[in-house]
Amino acid sequence: MSKESTYIPKSGFSKWFDQRLPLPRMLHDNINAFPTPRNLNYWYTFGGILTFCLVTQIVTGIVLAMHYTADAGLAFASVEHIMRNVNYGWLIRYIHAVGASMFFLAVYVHIFRGLYYGSYKAPREILWILGVVIYLLMVITAFMGYVLPWGQMSFWGATVITNLFSVIPVVGTTITEWLWGGFAVDNATLKRFFSLHYLMPFMIFGVVILHIWSLHVTGNNNPVGVSVKEKQDTVPFAPYYTVKDAFSLVCFLILFAWFIFFNPNILGHTDNYIMADPLVTPAHIVPEWYLLPFYAILRAIPSKLGGVLVMGAAIAILFILPWLDTSKVRSATFRPLYKQFYWIFVVNCIALGYLGSQNPEGLFLVASRICTAYYFIHFLLVLPILGLVEKPKPIPESITKAVLEKMEIRNMKEKSAEA
Amino acid sequence: MSDKDPKQPSRRDFIFLATGAFAAVGAASIAWPIVDQMNPDATALALSKIEVDISQLERGQAITVKWRGKPVFIRRRTEEEIQMASRVDIDSLPDNNARNYNLSPDSAASDENRSLDENGEWLVMVGVCTHLGCVPKGQSLGDSKGDFGGWYCPCHGSHYDTAGRIRKGPAAKNLDIPAAEFINQNVIRIG
């Protein structure tokens, strides 16, 4: 929050430095002393986990680029070279590949936490929109990264996705050939994807800084959704949340490590260990798991242009979410109806993910259409109407009151258990 | 032009506009090479024509060749396949344009307009699904040929008939027919 700085330079040198570049002051005010609601639960630790994921991807990516060759004839072999010959190459590549999945796992938890506690509502609209921008950049980066090993899924995934642009009226083909640098996905495409895959994480890093800046202007939302009113509603970020974030990160890393060391390929597709062949399409093209819901939406629409537009709308609708939800109550804890619709929406998204992995025929196609329709109904009908008809539960006066009430109830239960 | 009258454009306004316009033209002239370098380069454009020997193909057989980085299907159709394709009412097709580069752009999607020779035996098409660019199945004997006996795209479920016309599924257009001609009775030139 924008308030008085509490930084006091301790030595003569830090005083001298502070007068010339107040970087330690900025870090102190924004990390150590940053007032944070006292009631944040573990769902609020995923921002820290995501920062860790971004840094991990950048570090392992820079190292992989030292050994990888971006050339259609050599890329596939250079990835095998990393796996077999480079010292610890297997480890670094598996961290990077599994890391992409873990990054998306964490970002989905982070997004759904925001949906549950109404973190997109005023005054956090810009914070939310920046988050959607980061997610969009992540999707593009992950897509380009998946092309680089130049396996069958890389090649055909790239073909399908770049062809989405060919639906643009009049200039579609020109744009697609411009993206490819040829008449099909080929060497020129691979090289530009490598260049952009290296660039985009740094763009993400830039938007993350804006995201955190915006967070530090509005302050954290919290599980009861009541704004911070007085000093006792907050605790300093360090040590309270540095410790909580660190503990959560360690638990997350256990899962991360399990994938890396025991099942590094389970989230990938075996066809990507076959070198790209422009004349043979694999029997079953699927994107990585984290894009399956959007793939299901794309295939649910029986028209090419329509499918692309609806899939785009599925992400675009997140940008206007703050204005679609008409309820002033942030947290689902006090919204008995929204809470139920929230979980229906979660199940619907998981169902879309499953349907995205299946062939778009028969019952699967019917189900994809129903789930796609529901995805939009949730945003365009349920959210605007709920805010008007729902009667929220009584909302606590302050964060502190809510915390103390919870403690009292717990104490009473313990006492009655003793008796 | 007086510098003192605030309503009249001053020399300074002129200098501002001239500087801004000069900078904009300069930025655009350097931006275009950076955009255009991504377009297909000279080596990609050079691979535009190929010649294919089709003397070994029996009726009912098909081969796939690579042209401009894309697969081209060459199929020598059976009498039954030609019959199936000719019987269809053109107005009932999702796309009733022939999509044949050798004909005028508004030709109807009749079987004669899709095949290369007068008997309708030879079908030459770009083997790229017009939906999102996968290679449809149907060239090999064991392949699924879809509901209309032609080609089936496994990516998003588009069905093509024995003349390569879209019949069912998300694709909106018939498979493209590239510039092609018989040089002699054994060789087809594509491109």
Describe it for me?
- The complex is a heterodimer of chains A (419) and B (191).
- Helix content of chain A is 66%, strand content 1%.
- Chain A has 419 residues and is mainly alpha-helical.
- Chain A has a single domain (27-418), classed as Cytochrome Bc1 Complex, Chain C (Up-down Bundle), CATH 1.20.810.
- Chain A has a two-stranded antiparallel ribbon with strand order 1-2.
- In chain A, helix 6 runs antiparallel to helix 9 and helix 11 crosses helix 12.
- The longest helix of chain A has 32 residues, at 187-218.
- Chain A is globular and about 70 Å long.
- The mean pLDDT of chain A is 94.
- Chain B has 4 helices and 9 strands.
- In chain B, a hairpin with a 2-residue loop joins strand 8 (180-184) and strand 9.
- Chain B has helices spanning 11-36, 42-46, 79-86, 111-114; strands at residues 50-53, 62-67, 70-76, 122-126, 149-153, 158-161, 166-168, 180-184, 187-190.
- The relative contact order of chain B is 0.15.
- Chain B starts with 10 loop residues before the first helix and ends with a strand.
- Chain B is elongated, with a radius of gyration of 26 Å.
- With 191 residues, chain B is an alpha+beta fold.
- In chain B, the strands form 3 sheets. A 3-stranded antiparallel beta sheet of chain B has the order 1-9-8, with no helix packed on it. Chain B has a 3-stranded antiparallel beta sheet with strand order 2-3-4, with no helix packed on it. In chain B, strands 5-6-7 form a 3-stranded antiparallel beta sheet.
- At the A-B interface, helix 7, helix 8 and helix 12 of A face loops of B.
